[in-house]
Design brief:
Length: 68
């Protein structure tokens, strides 16, 4: 199902057959992985999340390590 999301992109991940965007999803208030080839459009805003980026990456890594 198509949806409109506001995301804070954290990383681009290159896999064998695809490219994923790791991001904080503002709609779900959680980390999500989006398949780049399924993103149909983007809107560039002047908003910056630079001060939060490192903290978000740290939180994502903690979540990954805690899942093991």
């Amino acid at each position: 199902t198509e949806s409109v999301r506001r995301i804070l992109p954290l990383s681009i991940v290159y896999l064998d057959q695809s490219v994923m965007v790791l991001a904080w999803c503002c709609l779900r208030a959680d980390f999500r992985k989006f398949m780049a080839d399924r993103i149909t459009g983007t809107v560039l805003t002047s908003d910056s999340f630079r001060p939060r980026r490192v903290a978000l990456l740290r939180d994502y890594l903690q979540q990954l390590l805690g899942a093991r």
